[in-house]
Amino acid sequence: MTNAFAPIDVGGRSLANRIVMAPMTRSRAYGPGATATDLMATYYSQRASAGLIVTEGIQPSEVGQGYPDTPGLHSPEQVAAWRKVTDSVHVDGGVIFAQLMHTGRIGHPSLLPDGSTPVAPSPVAADGQVFTRQGPMDFVTPRELDADAIARTITDFADAARNAIAAGFDGVEIHGANGYLIHQFLAPNTNRRTDDWGGDVTGRVRFGLEVAAAVAEAIGSHRTGFRISPGNPYNDIAETDAADVENTYTTLVSRLGELNLAYLHMIEGADRALTISLRKTWPATFILNPFTRPEPTGPDTLSLVQDGTTDMIAFGALFLANPDLPARLAAQGPYNTPDPSTFYGGDHQGYTDYPHLREG
Question: How far apart are alpha carbons 33 and 79 in whole angstroms?
Answer without folding.
Answer: 11
